[in-house]
Amino acid sequence: MSYTRTFKIPYMLCDRYQNLSLRNLANLLADTSLTHSHILEKDIDMSKFRWIVYSWDIEIIDVIKEFDEVEVTTNVVGTHKFYAHRNVYIKRDGEIIVKAYGLFLLIDIERMRPVKISKELIEAYGNDPLIYEKEDLTYEDSFNKYKNIEIRYTDIDSNFHVNNAVYFDYISDLCSLSTKDIKFINIVYKNEIRNKEIIIGEYSEDNKEVDYRLRSTEDKTIYTYGKIRKNV
């Protein structure tokens, strides 16, 4: 069962080019997905559990502009062990302009560990046809550009770690990219950023393809990594 929300994009969610920022695009995708989850789970006790975003693959066919009215639709395309697989797509004037594949991880709040999805939850979620397939990606592990990233007080959310959408700000700043420059972005959340003041951003670019990661300054902990395909 799919779920659709309609949004009119205010200018304060947009970047310097009047396009919806990457951070706020991620917020639209995640908020619609999690709202759908709450609806599907209305008869299930989820007080001990929480969904967190594990990864996004986002294809930007056309940028979303300020004052655009868009429809954001999500559906569950599979569940496996700890993960729910989602498609999300955004339409403007009936045309799909953004497609995304989201992987959501179910965790036990008390133990802060992944927990297997129950049969009750699997039945509630169902399994809709796949619209956008997740790509099998390979990643670089050597980088030639580096930047220190300061963790701002306002980056921390109610879970007392850096909010998932804020990572897109870090990546945009690291690679000097705006939404209009990107046709595809993949992000994998590996470890949370908690109790840090500075982290290191690293990236390398080859033929309009950017590999990046954010890591600790103190040890080998990797917070996130991913890949970007540019259209410029």
How does the SSE layout of this entry go?
Elements: E1 3-8, H1 22-40, E2 49-60, E3 69-80, E4 83-92, E5 95-108, E6 113-114, H2 119-125, E7 145-150, H3 166-175, E8 182-189, E9 198-206, E10 209-216, E11 222-230
Antiparallel strand pairs: 1-3, 2-5, 2-8, 3-4, 4-5, 5-6, 7-9, 8-11, 9-10, 10-11
Textual characterization of the structure:
With 232 residues, the protein is an alpha+beta fold. 16% of the residues lie in helices and 41% in strands. It contains 3 helices and 11 strands, in the order E-H-E-E-E-E-E-H-E-H-E-E-E-E. Strands 1, 2, 3, 4, 5, 6, 7, 8, 9, 10 and 11 form an 11-stranded antiparallel β-sheet that branches. A hairpin with a 2-residue loop joins strand 9 and strand 10. The chain is globular and about 50 Å long. One of its GO terms (molecular function) is thiolester hydrolase activity. Pfam families: Acyl-ACP_TE (PF01643), Acyl-ACP_TE_C (PF20791). This is Acyl-ACP thioesterase.
What is the share of helical residues? 10-25%
CATH topology of the largest domain: Thiol Ester Dehydrase, Chain A
Mean pLDDT: 96
Please describe the biggest sheet, giving its number of strands, its sense, and whether it closes into a barrel: 11 strands, antiparallel
CATH class of the largest domain: Alpha Beta
In DSSP terms, counting alpha (H) and pi (I) runs of 4 or more, how many helices? 3
Radius of gyration: 18 Å
User: Which residue ranges are poorly predicted, with pLDDT under 50 across at least 5 consecutive positions?
Assistant: none
Give the domain tally: 2
GO molecular function: thiolester hydrolase activity
Protein name: Acyl-ACP thioesterase
Domain Acyl-ACP thioesterase N-terminal hotdog: 2-125
Domain Acyl-ACP thioesterase-like C-terminal: 145-219
